[in-house]
Amino acid sequence: MDNELKPMDAEQLRERAHKMVDFIADYYKNIEDFPVLSQVEPGYLRNLLPESAPHNPESLQSVLDDVQKKIFPGVTHWQSPNYFAYYPSNSSIAGFLGEMLSAAFNVIGFSWVTSPAATELEMIVLDWLAKLLKLPDDFLSSGKGGGVIQGTASEAVLVVLLAARDRALRRFGKDYLKKLVVYASDQTHSALQKACQIGGIHPENCRWLKADISTNYALSPNVLSEELSRDTARGLIPFFLCATVGTTSSTAVDPLPELGSIAKRHEMWFHVDAAYAGSACVCPEYRQYIDGVEEADSFNMNLHKWFLTNFDCSVLWVKDRHALIRSLSTNPEYLKNKASEAELVVDYKDWQIPLGRRFRSLKVWLVLRLYGTENLQKYIRNHIRLAERFEALVREDPRFEVLSGKYILRFAVGAPLTEEKHINSAWKLLQDAASTLLAI
């Protein structure tokens, strides 16, 4: 049929892509009108869609009509200006364009030879970001370390935990796995617990150290030191310490200089998880929150949270890339090539769990180029200003207080389209709910 959609045809792509872009643009134009949280019941979609795939092709318009009528109701709109849950998950025009380019090339860039630009651009843009964050030179690709884009912070902490585990086992012997101990505060993301489960670390050797209001929910160096003393006296081996810059629960910041010093004394791998708040540190006035990162073996932040880069894009820097490669490298015959064999290039397949990987550096490159450092800093500062506006509103109402140790209201500002009117609207909603509750 003349109208039949081909697997890839330039003119068909042009026509349908224009239609899809118009559809997406209209969605963003009207996104504020949708309820942020989906209102459907579990299993709603099965009643709306056929039991089997269509035998004959359908038109794009019929699919888009179904998206509007059947998919939209089941979407929680993370990009809505009225979204204040979990954490930001930023999309942007630059991020979209980068994703389009990545989809166009559709390279599976596991090694340099599969698409040299995919590897080399990733090295360059992560060096740019490292310099923007004023990370130590050890994290740059020109030295023994470098940066790599992972899918999520969960993947980042897993690969460095495996590298740290194997480094310790090479030192003490492969039979010492049951003695290896991990340390972090009880505010640390559960991704670390999952990494320990995957990495074979015994659950009883995972130390989730209590953090409370006395340290603003940061990990206390004294509490850590006491736990280390007890463990070493019992013949256990401390091998991994995770600090957080911006915990999920309260955006707490662990004291990196003190923790880094302790990790160094005990020869532990020191990982800094700045997935949530790391983006703020591109602003000079907030860079202080990662002071001490020079003691870290690895550092991670999620560009897809608060840096206008569409999901997924979690960046990880390590001081010693060979620690990752020794744990994660495979080299079957069908992947061998002259550049890799001569060690002239980086093969990112050896820095991650999967073999295949997308050309994600394109969207980072576009975000950095189309917005520029100054505008990215302004974007971060505006969200912080809006969060401070919400705090001021809370403090003005005697029915609410900014206090810990009780049930709390967590309000995360960071959606791309959020303005002060959305803050005010959300506060009005909360005040009305409080009035209703207090009247009962």
UniProtKB/TrEMBL annotation:
Q: Which residues carry this modification: N6-(pyridoxal phosphate)lysine?
A: K305
In Pfam terms, one family for this protein is: Pyridoxal_deC
Q: Please name the GO terms that the record assigns under molecular function.
A: carboxy-lyase activity; pyridoxal phosphate binding
**Gene3D superfamilies for the chain:** Aspartate Aminotransferase, domain 1, dopa decarboxylase, N-terminal domain, Type I PLP-dependent aspartate aminotransferase-like (Major domain)
Tell me the superkingdom of the source.
Eukaryota
Keywords for the protein's UniProt record, in alphabetical order: Decarboxylase, Lyase, Pyridoxal phosphate
> Its GO CC terms?
cytoplasm
Can you cite a GO biological process for this protein?
A: carboxylic acid metabolic process
Task: Output the InterPro entries linked to this UniProt entry.
Answer: Aromatic_deC, PyrdxlP-dep_de-COase, PyrdxlP-dep_Trfase, PyrdxlP-dep_Trfase_major, PyrdxlP-dep_Trfase_small, Pyridoxal-P_BS
Q: Which cofactor does it need?
A: pyridoxal 5'-phosphate
- Which family would the database say this protein is a member of? Belongs to the group II decarboxylase family.
Protein name stated in the entry: Tyrosine decarboxylase 1 isoform X2
Q: Which species is this UniProt entry from?
A: Cucumis melo
